[in-house]
Design goal:
The complex is a heterodimer. Chain A is mostly helical. Chain A has one domain: Arp2/3 complex 21 kDa subunit ARPC3 (Orthogonal Bundle). In chain A, 73% of the residues lie in helices and 0% in strands. Chain A has eight helices and no strands. In chain A, α2 packs across α4, α3 packs across α7 and α7 packs antiparallel against α8. The longest helix of chain A has 27 residues. Chain A is globular, with a radius of gyration of 15 Å. By secondary structure, chain B is an alpha+beta fold. In chain B, the strands form three sheets. In chain B, strands 2-3-6-5-4-13 form a six-stranded antiparallel barrel. In chain B, strands 7-8-9-12-11-10 form a six-stranded antiparallel barrel. In chain B, β8 and β9 form a beta hairpin. In chain B, α3 packs across α4. The termini of chain B are far apart. The chains are: A mainly alpha, B alpha+beta. The interface between A and B is large, with 68 and 54 residues.
Chain lengths: 161, 282
């Protein structure tokens, strides 16, 4: 069965997740850093089902994120697709049930997402101080997402490949 | 699942579809940047806003309930015998506490409006529910449940009883996005209350906003209040923005900077007011 025909359900699922992220996410902020729920879902999907499927999740999830936020439309999609491509390696080449693989994937995926997203924001006119951004935002975000994925790993390992 | 994955997507097939998705995203980006996606965005937010609003209300109530429960546990250790007697009253207390807090907030908002007669505020409808904040860590927006139907326009200042929240950045029929003063692209003309120095406050990623363009040599005191200066006409004069918590001064620089902690608690933003008209000379 074609993935295009079977994956329509991800639209409402990721939509609900995006609403959860924009409403509840700020309440889960630690020192001003919010968890990236959609990003973590896409990374988890890439580990469970491979990058092919996760790229579609990234595209749809990114559109939801951009619709519900003030960001440029399509920017999150491109950034999430990049993260899915990178972390999808963990599905085929690495034993994902290793305790640390999901966390490492979350760290790498978060870094890829941040860099691509910021590159797009820069292209459309935003100006960021790179040093401050790296120390004050990207590093905490990457660590926070990595920690959350580590905590979610036992749950992730319950899903079949 | 892996076999399924490979069966659905061969290598070449995947490359084609990846390209299609990427090009679609780029196309959407271009359409939005040229202002051609407004109608679609409006339709989608019309559908999602009730869900956001409902979840926001639920989350607020849950958060308040958790806080009350934490206090309740401490109390339980000290007066356990009273717990049983009061058990039946707890639910009612929670409900009344929520009503009390809401009442207090509304009173504060009303006081804000009464002390600023030069602002044109839209009766009960000016009180908007902050129904969602930005989905990423890199931008700072919030969405409110007022839109063009309520007379909201891009650029209008947004405040609450604590001070300046931001300004309207985009509007649909029933919702609006508010660019918060903490966002990197936000600029606000400000004045320091005691020293009367003027400058521009910019959002700073992952940190407090920074007031720049303060002349070198001028004395800036930690703890000084920063207010809107009214210059440029974008914001009314005299709205509290924050308090100086750090002064960055380097001899090599022509100007100095002051880190400003906002008076508004953006982590607990629930109600805001949109100033639909104001006397810029005030």
């Amino acid at each position: 069965m074609s993935i295009w025909r079977t994956s329509w359900l991800i639209v409402p699922v990721l939509g609900a997740a995006a609403i959860f992220q924009v409403v509840v996410g700020p309440r889960l902020a630690v020192y001003g850093v919010r968890p990236d729920l959609i990003l973590l879902l896409v990374i988890a999907r890439s580990l469970l089902a491979g990058r092919h499927d996760a790229v579609l999740w990234g595209f749809v999830g990114g559109l939801w994120m951009d619709i519900l936020s003030g960001g440029p439309m399509g920017a999150s999609s491109l950034a999430l697709m990049a993260a899915a491509l990178l972390t999808g390696v963990g599905h085929s080449a690495i034993f994902r049930r290793n305790l640390f693989v999901p966390s490492i994937a979350a760290v790498l995926g978060s870094a890829a997402f941040s860099l691509v997203y910021l590159a797009i924001l820069t292209i459309v006119g935003y100006r960021f101080p790179p040093g401050l951004l790296l120390t004050e935002l990207i590093t905490p975000v990457v660590l926070y997402n990595g920690t959350l994925m580590f905590l979610a790993t036992p749950l992730l390992n319950r899903f079949p490949e | 699942m892996r076999n399924n994955d490979q069966r659905g997507w061969s290598g070449a097939d995947f490359a084609v579809r990846l390209t299609i998705l990427a090009l679609t995203a780029v196309l959407l980006l271009a359409l939005q940047q040229t202002g051609r996606l407004g109608r679609i965005e409006s339709l989608v937010t019309l559908v999602t806003a009730p869900g956001q609003s409902g979840l926001a209300t639920l989350t607020n109530r849950l958060s308040e309930s958790l806080t009350t429960l934490r206090n309740y546990r401490n109390l339980q250790k000290r007066v356990s015998e009273l717990e049983q007697i009061n058990h039946s009253l707890i639910v009612e207390t929670l409900r009344l506490a929520e009503v009390e807090r809401e009442n207090q907030r509304l009173r504060e908002l009303l006081a804000f409006a009464e002390t600023r007669p030069g602002f044109e505020l839209r009766g009960g409808q000016i009180i908007a529910l902050a129904i969602g904040q930005n989905a990423t860590n890199f931008l700072n927006y919030t969405m409110i449940d007022l839109g063009s139907y309520h007379g909201i326009e891009v650029g209008m200042p947004v405040v609450n009883e604590q001070g300046l929240v931001g300004r309207i950045s985009s509007v649909t029929n029933t919702t609006s996005k508010v660019l918060l003063i903490t966002d990197i692209s936000s600029t606000v003309n400000a004045i320091l209350q005691a020293s009367r120095l003027t400058g521009i406050i910019n959002g700073s990623p992952g940190s407090h906003p920074v007031m720049g363009f303060i002349p070198q040599g001028a004395e800036v005191g930690v703890g000084e209040a920063a207010l809107t200066s009214g210059m440029g006409g974008n914001f009314p004069k005299g709205i509290p923005i924050g308090q100086v918590v750090e002064v960055r001064q380097r001899d090599v620089n022509v100007v100095q900077e002051a880190v400003v902690r906002p008076t508004v608690d953006f982590g607990r933003l629930e109600f805001v007011m949109v100033i639909t008209n104001f006397d810029s000379g005030q």
